[in-house]
Write a structure and sequence with these properties.
By secondary structure, the protein is an all-alpha fold. The protein contains seven helices and no strands.
Length: 132
């Protein structure tokens, strides 16, 4: 199971890197985004990039700690990140190009959440509640 926790941690660190990149891009190119009236604005991109990065960095740290009592918090953070991502895709950053990949993104999100639930031992915890 350690190798799966390490793999999940690497995936989360990749997501954190992408989120930090989003925030840095919004900050460095804010004049460009203002000039062309980009929607959502650079402030939104900066704030969401920082929030997303903090969420997944925290989840990565809790996952890497290997302590099962922290796994629920890590899983909650991963689910929260996925939810915020989908709110962003569906309501704020809606573009024609992004919607072309909607089916792929749904499947990828569900597979990622299932993998995180498996690695963070959420599936056995949920199944044990149904057995009672």
């Amino acid at each position: 199971m350690r190798i799966h926790r390490f793999a999940l941690t690497l995936i989360l660190l990749g997501l954190a890197w992408a989120s930090i990149g989003r925030a840095i891009w919004a900050w460095t190119d804010r004049d460009f985004l203002i000039r062309y009236s980009a929607q959502p604005g650079w402030e939104y991109l900066l704030v969401t990039g920082v929030i997303w990065a903090l969420l997944v960095l925290s989840a990565a740290g809790l996952t890497l700690s290997g302590k099962p009592r922290w796994f629920r918090i890590a899983f909650f953070e991963i689910v929260l990140w996925a939810g915020l991502y989908w709110v962003d895709v569906l309501f704020f950053s809606r573009s024609g190009e992004a919607l072309l990949n909607l089916g792929f993104l749904v499947v990828l999100t569900l597979v990622g959440l299932l993998y995180a639930a498996f690695v963070l031992e959420m599936i056995p915890a949920i199944l044990s509640r149904f057995r009672r």
